[in-house]
Amino acid sequence: QVQLVESGGGLVQPGGSLRLSCAASGIIFRLYAMGWYRQAPGKQRELVAGISSGGRTNYADSVEGRFTVSRDNAKKTVYLQMNSLKDEDTAVYYCKSTGPYEYWGQGTQVTVSS
After folding, report:
1. Does residue 63 sit in helix, strand or coil?
2. So what's the pLDDT on residue 101?
3. Is the pLDDT of residue 99 over 90?
4. From CA 17, how far away is CA 19, in angstroms rounded?
5. Burial letters for 38-71: b for 16+ Cβ neighbours within 10 Å, e otherwise?
């Protein structure tokens, strides 16, 4: 059974940092591209950052320079380091694996508020 389990969300003040983790099981992790998405209330889900199986990264313009995506294939985990957080970063964050099949995690809430 495939599982993607996100963790690390929470409440943080503007300008603060959080690191999200997504632990995968049931897939050959190193073969999958991984992505972080987010969905704010009333908005569509959007891609935040992605990392290919080879380690190539891409970012949404809104987070470029503030967020960093990385992966540890030995731990079957992908990370999203989020710095200089803004109110508009508030959303539920999801990880997705893309390979022969696509899988989604259940999401973790990130709230940026003073």
Report:
1. coil
2. 87
3. no
4. 7
5. beeeeeeeeebbbbebeeeeebeeebeeebbbeb
C-alpha 18/C-alpha 22 separation (Å) is 13
The dihedral sign for the CA sequence 99, 102, 106, 110: positive
Report pLDDT digits (tens) over 54-68: 999 999 999 999 999
Tens-place pLDDT, residues 1-34? 999 999 999 999 999 999 999 999 998 999 999 9
Q: How many residues does the chain have?
A: 114
Largest CA-CA distance found in the chain, in angstroms, rounded: 42
Write a three-state SS string for 65-90: CCEEEEEECCCCEEEEEECCCCHHHC
What 3-state class would DSSP assign to 112? strand
Q: Which two tokens stand for residue 44?
A: 């569509």
Q: Are 51 and 71 in contact, with CB atoms under 8 Å apart?
A: yes
Q: For position 33, what pLDDT does the model report?
A: 96
